[in-house]
Design brief:
It is found in: Endoplasmic reticulum membrane. GO terms for molecular function: oxidoreductase activity. The protein has 15 helices and 4 strands. With 458 residues, it is mainly alpha-helical. It has one domain. The strands form 2 sheets. The protein has a two-stranded antiparallel ribbon. The protein has a two-stranded antiparallel ribbon with strand order 3-4. α10 runs antiparallel to α15.
Length: 458
């Protein structure tokens, strides 16, 4: 009897040991797989003289904390967007009915008075407006015999001319702020996260972006397959890495803010990081080896937008960031100057002067092709069937387009070139461009910071 008892205990002990060993092997394998996601993040950013490790240090310690604080301020949290624009490429037949796809627009009274364009102009430029009004009255007295009316046809023509002039320097289409369908959205109340929007509709969006608007060295490369950049010029490689980096950033946000099941039977679901979802998108074993390069492309996109902020620093440092709240406006203005000082001090910025060089005629054609491809992508954002996904897609594409506008404007191109607000006719940013620029960069910054979270979980 005693012998039988010892035998059973030995068997149980052996079984437990096998279970523990098997679990340890699984955990080691799991950690190894996740670690494989980051295998390219100890290298240099492609086509740049910058180590990824240095960007991690800059972002996570110096840029991300103050940037997130700024983005919570009124000036940056309210974004005017038209979510009702029709898709220009195919019928909008895939609207998302999930509750998490919904966007709550602001009521008229929720938006600070200073942010509304007409009140902003009245307050911010009251002295100039009075001087202009006085001058206008004097001119009317002197020229009262003249017919100063303008026909509706002429007004429409002027608008078309303005739209055309604006489009020449813009890399993306920007919603008309005066449209009745444009509404202010509080970005803090409508965070970017996993909504359940997936399937054929999302695949069509990204397939159209990659297969129809990204440059590729050969025909027949399908969306989701390995895309070799060999043989592509620097500009076309840069375009692909920008889009891939943006796509990666969006995927990281969805993995970091995933709807998790309740831990108890009576508990509610919560939003949080989903390691398995992260692995499914970036593990080399689950992505045919593509995942690590996708993560690496995130740093390329980050470096490009970082350079745009550095180049536009003289312009942005002169902005009032006006909302009507004097104390907060002063804090934001000082916070922007502090943030830009960190950004300007970074020694390894992206060098845009290397792009569109060579034969001037060929460079001009390539630049227009580059610009038209990006504009198409901004239009594709209106085809997204989930309003929340559309909101953040439009904002991030517009922010990246604003960064490109900055890079190819100003007193030249290269590490020392800048854009200023001294010559408004040659360069100017609308409020919606500034808001999208900082929020888009904030999304990239958050993605890089989130990578550390998944590293720790692994």
């Amino acid at each position: 009897m005693r012998s039988s008892w010892k035998t059973r205990m030995s068997f149980l002990f052996l079984s437990l040991s096998v279970v523990l060993y098997t679990q340890a092997v699984k955990n080691k394998s799991k950690n190894s797989d996740v670690g494989g996601c980051f295998c390219k993040l100890n290298e240099q950013v492609d086509d740049c003289a910058c180590q990824i490790e240095s960007l991690d240090q800059l972002n996570n310690k110096q840029i991300h904390p103050p940037l997130q604080s700024l983005l919570a301020k009124d000036y940056f949290r309210y974004f005017k967007v038209n979510l009702k624009k029709q898709c220009p490429f195919w019928p909008d037949d895939s609207r998302c009915a999930l509750k998490d796809c919904h966007v709550s627009a602001c009521s008229e009274g929720q938006v600070p008075d200073g942010i509304k364009a007409e009140i902003h102009e009245k307050n911010k430029y009251s002295k100039e407006a009075q001087e202009e009004k006085s001058q206008t009255c004097q001119e009317e007295r002197e020229l009262s015999a003249l017919d100063t009316t303008i026909s509706k046809a002429s007004q429409e023509a002027f608008k078309n001319w303005t739209d055309y002039d604006d489009s020449q320097e813009n890399f993306c289409e920007i919603d008309d702020d005066t449209s009745a369908d444009s509404q202010y959205v509080d970005l803090l109340l409508n965070p970017e996260r996993y909504t359940g929007y997936k399937g054929a509709s999302t695949h069509r969006i990204w397939r159209s972006i990659y297969d129809e608007n990204c440059f590729k060295p050969e025909k027949g490369i399908a969306y989701g397959k390995q895309r070799s950049l060999a043989g592509l010029c620097l500009e076309k490689r840069a375009f692909y890495r920008l889009i891939s980096g943006l796509h990666t950033s969006i995927n990281i946000h969805l993995c970091a803010q995933y709807l998790l099941p309740s831990k108890t039977m009576l508990g509610s679901k919560t939003w949080g990081p989903n390691l398995e979802e992260f692995k499914s998108r970036f593990d080399p074993k689950l992505t045919n080896g593509h995942g690590p390069q996708r993560l690496k492309n995130l740093y390329f996109a980050y470096l490009v937008e970082l350079r745009a902020l550095a180049k536009a620093a003289p312009y942005l440092e002169q902005e009032d960031f006006f909302t009507g709240n004097d104390e907060e406006d002063r804090d934001v203005k000082q916070g922007i100057k502090n943030l830009l000082s960190f950004i300007k001090s970074f020694p390894h910025h992206f060098d845009e002067s290397k792009l569109f060089q060579g034969n001037p005629k060929e460079a001009h054609i390539l630049k227009e092709e580059f610009k038209n491809h990006f504009r198409n992508i901004s239009r594709i954002m209106d085809c997204v069937g989930c309003d929340k996904c559309k909101l953040w897609g439009k904002l991030q594409v517009q922010g990246m387009g604003t960064a490109l506008k900055i890079l190819f404007s100003g007193d030249g191109m290269g590490p020392d070139s800048t854009v200023t607000n001294q010559h408004k006719k040659s360069f100017q940013l609308r409020r919606t461009e500034i808001v999208s620029l900082f929020n888009a960069f904030g999304r990239l910054s958050k993605s890089i910071q989130t990578i550390e979270l998944f590293r720790e979980q692994s």
